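Cast an eye over this sequence plus tokens and explain the fold to me:
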Amino acid sequence: MLLQRRILVPWIASTLVMYGLSFLWHGIALNDLRELRIPMGLYVALSAVVYLVIGLGTTFAMHQAIQHKWIGIRQGFPFKGLLLGAILGFLVYLVAFIFGMSFTDRKVMHILVDILWQMVEQGLGGLMVSLGIIYDLHQAFLENERAQ
């Protein structure tokens, strides 16, 4: 149970936040989804899979960073999660840009806005991972206290 909560809570929390933010940004703020070249249902399903993978990758990266002591949980841990997410967001955007999977017309201003948005979106996903880890640590502490 502990292993499941340790991974599932941060993973699902980050995935839901990033997926929701993506829909708000592309669907409502920019109306990019009207210009899709694939059916909307297929886009929604594929983007859900992509965000599940990004969320799991962020969760895995955060756990690895904690395990190798690259990130400590005693000071500024949520901020470090946000920063890790932003870095991963930059890398995700580079991959999407290279494969031509961007909504933009590749003008410099659009590219910069997309990079910043991706970093904000994934940064908030990283924040959710760190908050999920904090939640798990808190629950484990409570379970340990009840057992004694």
